[in-house]
Design a protein that fits this description.
The protein is mostly helical. Helices cover 40% and strands 7% of the residues. A three-stranded antiparallel β-sheet has the order 3-5-4. The protein has a two-stranded antiparallel ribbon with strand order 1-2. A hairpin with a 2-residue loop joins strand 4 and strand 5 (239-245). The longest helix is centred in the middle third of the chain and has 52 residues, at 252-303. It is globular, with a radius of gyration of 29 Å. This is Pentapeptide repeat.
């Protein structure tokens, strides 16, 4: 509870100059109007700490707290300035934003866990995939907000939320309610019902083989936590929403993240197999063309000679269908893992030399990683192909540090390799290799996981 005596104490300390709250717990403190020049907040716990109208907060030492980013710091000083601000991926953990104006603000992927948004205006704000565990939305205004895949649980406070309607998908799709407005209390009731549900959104259809394998993997990784598909909704344009029921005490954020990572890993393995099959088919066609060309040459030679040629019809075997279905694909052909691994090794070999020898060290590390993938007995050919393609992505990204899109793909590739390694025993070669090599790759590329 905030009290005048507490506010006087913290302001008095701050006014001393060079005050240090290093590693201190400053929860619920009120610095309103205080001058905070040179105050050390490094590694302090600033949950629900009020910085409204503070002076020279930009000259304080924020360390790795939520004060580190200027855009967040300015919002904490002036909560009414957040309209249409881009706060995507921002660290707002524990932020005190009571009565803040965040109308049409972009908070996609932001961490707002433990934050206070009481009476805040979040109308038409983008809250896609925010982490809102322990977050206080009591009496907040949320009409028109996008709540796609936001992470809430029983600790999220939604009492007396003022909301006429929301969207469950981006671009104002999946309006709730479909028509009209929420009646009093309906918004809170709607989301209390999903506290035990993880929503999985697929924007390009669902590969059911990868989906089922992912469900099994995530269940094992979470100590056989019961996972039950409660509904599958087709939203059109290839968009599906799968609702997975989990126990009330389950870590929904962890399950959602692990599902996404494992699904992408399985999907890459399936796509690698399809690509190998298509490549094999193209090779067959090329071989046919070459043979046909040779036959034409032979025909021309024989045609110039005074002999009779008996022409026999050649019945070519029917072509296998290349239509991709969601059925069993285990017997559709052999995956040329060796060819894929050779291709990846060639990509690594093409990494250019550098003056400080860093590239050579990276090449050596990637080669070791490929060796571990190739010899890992616990992986099937699909998983090896998927892992190898992730290494290829990393190798390409190392040569184009200015390519932001490629760097994001490399970050994703590292995460997928980490996820793959977690499914192995510590004694496995690939597990050991990932533990030692992936941190080196992260440092070399300068990426943040």
């Amino acid at each position: 509870m905030r009290g005048p005596w507490l506010r006087k104490i913290v302001i008095a300390f701050a006014a001393m100059g060079d005050t240090s709250f290093y590693k201190a717990t400053v929860t619920d403190a009120d610095f309103t109007g205080a001058t905070l020049k040179n105050v050390n907040f490094n590694r302090a716990i600033l949950t629900r700490t009020c910085f409204k109208d503070t002076v020279k907060l930009n000259l304080a030492r924020p360390g790795n707290t939520l004060l580190e980013k200027p855009i967040v710091r300015d919002l904490l000083i002036n909560p009414s300035s957040g309209e249409e601000k881009d706060l995507s991926k921002a660290n707002l953990r524990g932020a005190y934003l009571k009565e803040a104006n965040l109308q049409r603000a972009n908070l996609k992927n932001a961490d707002i866990s433990g934050a206070t948004f009481e009476y805040a205006n979040l109308s038409s704000a983008n809250l896609t995939e925010v982490n809102a565990v322990y977050t206080n939305f009591n009496s907040a205004y949320l009409t028109g907000a996008c709540l796609e895949n936001w992470n809430i649980d029983t600790t999220t406070k939604l009492d007396n939320v003022d909301c006429q309607y929301v969207y469950l998908l981006n671009n104002e799709k999946e309006r709730q309610p479909s028509s009209g407005d929420f009646k009093t209390g309906e918004f809170t009731k709607l989301f209390e019902e999903v506290f035990d549900t993880v929503n999985l959104i697929f924007e390009n259809g669902i590969d059911w083989k990868a989906f089922i394998e992912t469900m099994k993997t995530v269940q094992v990784e979470n100590e056989d936590t019961p996972l039950e598909v409660s509904s599958i909704e087709n939203k059109g344009d290839g968009v599906f929403v799968v609702k997975v029921k989990v126990p009330p005490d389950a870590d929904k954020e962890k399950i959602h993240q692990e599902f996404e990572e494992n699904y992408q890993l399985k999907l890459q393995a399936v796509e690698a197999k399809y690509k190998a099959l298509l490549d094999a088919k193209e090779n067959e066609i090329s071989s046919y063309h070459r043979e046909n060309a040779n036959m034409m040459e032979i025909t021309k030679i024989l045609a110039s000679r005074p002999i009779n040629i008996e022409t026999k019809a050649m019945n070519n075997s029917p072509d296998n269908s290349t239509n991709i279905t969601t059925g069993d694909i285990n017997n559709t052909g052999n995956l040329n893992t060796g060819k894929i691994i050779k291709d990846v090794n060639n990509t690594i070999d093409n990494i250019s030399e550098s003056d400080n020898n860093e590239n050579e060290q990276l090449k050596t590390s990637l080669k070791e990683l490929m060796q571990a993938i190739e010899t890992e007995n616990e992986l099937d050919d699909e998983e090896k192909a998927g892992a190898a393609n992730n290494v290829k992505t990393i190798a390409k990204a190392s040569q184009k540090p200015e390519d932001e899109g490629l760097q994001k793909k490399a970050t994703r590739a590292v995460k997928l390799l980490e996820t793959l390694a977690k499914g192995l025993k510590p004694a496995n070669k690939l597990y050991t290799a990932c533990q030692s090599i992936l941190p080196q790759i992260v440092t070399f590329l300068g990426i943040t996981l």
